[in-house]
Each structure stands twice: as structure tokens, then as C-alpha cells.
Amino acid sequence: MDFSSKLLEQAVAEMSQLPGIGKRTALRLVLHLLKQPATQTQQLAEALLDLKANIKLCKNCHNISDTEICEICANPNRTRELVCVVEDIRDVMAIENTGQYRGLYHVLGGKISPMDGIGPSQLTIKSLIDKVKEGEVKEIIFALSSTLEGDTTNFYIFRQLEGIEIKTSTIARGISVGDELEYADEVTLGRSITNRIPFESSLKS
Amino acid sequence: MDFSSKLLEQAVAEMSQLPGIGKRTALRLVLHLLKQPATQTQQLAEALLDLKANIKLCKNCHNISDTEICEICANPNRTRELVCVVEDIRDVMAIENTGQYRGLYHVLGGKISPMDGIGPSQLTIKSLIDKVKEGEVKEIIFALSSTLEGDTTNFYIFRQLEGIEIKTSTIARGISVGDELEYADEVTLGRSITNRIPFESSLKS
Questions:
Q1: Closest Cβ opposite residue A11 in set B21, B48, B93
Q2: What is the CATH number of the domain that holds B40?
Q3: Do B157 and B75 lie in a common domain?
């Protein structure tokens, strides 16, 4: 694209570094900011810089936090015996929204993915194993998305836990509540039959 | 959404003020920045602040420019007799990309749209009329998109020019080059028949 302004070109170039934002979208966003009062641009820039400079990762679960220990880990009403292994803060938010989980989390920061150059050492796996070895944790719940990378990561952690006495579980896969069986994919439907649960249990939730 | 961090919440709130960026997309963009080196966030913030603080509008055509008079208006090889009326810099860029236009532009900064509270006084219409009155311009080419707002704006300017001797024209509407007739909408196809041109002229371009 041939911009009439180096300033505009630079802003568009930086904006289009964001994932999923092409040059055209970046131009639209930047032109929108130009039409708005200067305070909006300032507040956006400050919020991003402030976040990047001051964000912390919880020392216990590695979730994004404003404090050394995040609110969830600091909550005395949550059981320390359950640890749910997730990829990032979005998974934590999704599970928290259900209101069904009273344990803690362990945020890996990604999944093992040789294609993207992400190995076990870039994730917080060692910290998880160390935490388990301390003995307070009774059950690890794997809640990574069920992709090749997710399954690989689960299995890697599972192997690391060998020899340590701890219960491991994975969240149930099955047909979404409200979905029609005929449109479900075969793998999901197969798993939901294999992992069927006593009818009485389904009445509780 | 329930964020575990005020800093994160603030950054997502600011990012989601941008048009077409919802809370989920904003979170994805902000988490991406968090994973990147701090320089990327700094460069983005600086580019936006620098643009907003230092951008100029060309005194002649009101296009975005780093200088008082933009490159196009300052170019002695371009004819001052033709002025193409467009909405914003994206239209200028699109027309410049064709390499077919050697006149100047006049950037309105929007279209008349009572629904959005945009009246003629918020656009650079008066400046266009004043420019025409100076006498150097021989033809005004309307190139706004042919929507209700575009047509209203064209007509408003056309009425303002009444009594001034000047040629006005509008860019041709018709079937896109390479498109099949059967898929064209009726209005466009109708216009392209009504505004047919001598066959010899079509051989030139």
C-alpha cells in the first residue's frame, strides 16, 4: 500500500503485527483512532504499556495477576487438593464462569508443539511437578484442548508424574448439552458412549 | 468477563473500543502482546501516539499528510484543473493504485449522514466550494461510494455549485471487469447499459 504519510504507514505497520489484523484492518483501526479525541489513543497506549510493564504471573499457578499470588490461589475457601492444568488465562476464565470448580489452577503458558518450537522447558511443567512432590495436591485434572498438542502435553506430564502417588483425571468429552446427536462428530459421540456415567449422577448437575 | 487482573481488564477495555474488535478478540490481541518482547508493545504505543500528535491534514486537499501540503498537491506534474471528491484517504490510495488519474483530490472526511449526526459543516465542503470559486478548477469528479449517504453528499455539493460555471462528473458504475453478467445486480447492470460508451473508447484502456 502506498501511504501519503510515513507516520500513518508506521502506525499501520505496527498495528498489523497483531495476529489476525491485516494491513486493511489495521488502516481502518488507525483511521478510526485519528477521528477520535486524542485521549482515546493515549488511554490505549498507556493501558498497553502499563500492562506490559507491571503485569505479574502468580508465583503459585502462573496465571496473569496484579499481585504476587493471584486471587484464586489466595482464596482460603478453595481446596488446595485439586489442581486443574490449563493452557492460559482464557481457560481459567471459562472454567471460573461455570461456577462449578473450587480447586486451584496451574497455567502452563502453552502446549508442547515442536512445529512452533515450543518444548516442555518453555512451559511451567517443572513447577507443576515440584508442586505435586510437595504432597498437598491429591488430584491433577487435565483440561487442555483435545488436539494433538494438547494430548501430547497431557501425556508428557502424565509420564513425569510416574512414581508419584497422585490421582489424574481429564475433563469429560461428549456431546454438548442441547446438541442433536445426528450432527455430532463420530469421535466425540464415540467417547461420550465409552465414558457414559450412571444416570443418577447426571441428575445432580 | 471476570479478569484476574485490573491491568489486563483495562487493556482489554481500551482495545475493544476499536471498531469491530470485541472483548474476546481484544483479549486475544492483548495476550499476544504479553507473549512478545516489550519492544513490540512500545513500538505500537509510540507509533499511535506519534501519529495522533504529529499528523497533519494537507491544507489544500485535507488528505492525511506529514507535511503542510501533501505530496500529491505539491506535485507539479499533476493538473490542478481536475479535482476528485472522495471520502477519505483509503479512496485516494485506491484511485492512486490505478495509475490512471493525474488530477488532485479533495478529501471530505466523511459523508453527510444525519443518522450518525454528520452534517455538511463537519465535512470540508465549504473549502471545496471556496477552491472552485478561485477559478482554477475546471471539473469536479464525484467518487463517493454510491450509497444513500454518498448520493446525498454528491447532490448537496452539486447544489452548492449552482451558479458557478464548472463541469461536474461522477465515476462510471457498471459491471466489474471480468465479472459474469448473470451474477450482476440489476441496478448496476441497468446503469452500465444506460451509460454505455462508444466501442472504440473501450479499446483505449
A1: B48
A2: 1.10.8.420
A3: yes
Confidence tier at B205 by pLDDT (50, 70, 90): low
Average pLDDT over residues A5-26: 94
What ipTM was reported for this prediction?
A: 0.82
- Residue A163: CATH number of its domain: 3.40.1360.10
The pLDDT confidence band at residue A195, using thresholds 50, 70 and 90, is confident
Any B CB within 8 A of A26 CB:
no
Three cell numbers written together for B111 = 459523508
Are A77 and A165 in the same domain? yes
Residues in B closer than 8 angstroms to A63, CB to CB, are: 4
> Per-residue pLDDT for B84 more than 60?
yes
Quick one: A95 and A149 in the same domain?
yes
Predicted confidence at residue A205, as pLDDT, reads 55
Contacts of B61 (CB under 8 A, 6+ apart): B70, B72, B73, B104, B105, B106, B107
Domain that holds residue A24: 6-54
- Burial string for A75-104 (b: 16+ CB within 10 Å, else e) reads eeebeeebbbbbbbbebbbebbeeeebebb
A203 domain residue, yes or no? no
Instruction: For A95, name the nearest residue in chain B, comparing CA atoms only.
Output: B2
Q: What pLDDT, on a 0 to 100 scale, did the predictor assign at position A192?
A: 82
Mutate to test the interface with B, among A1, A10, A39, A52 (most CBs of B within 10 A): A52
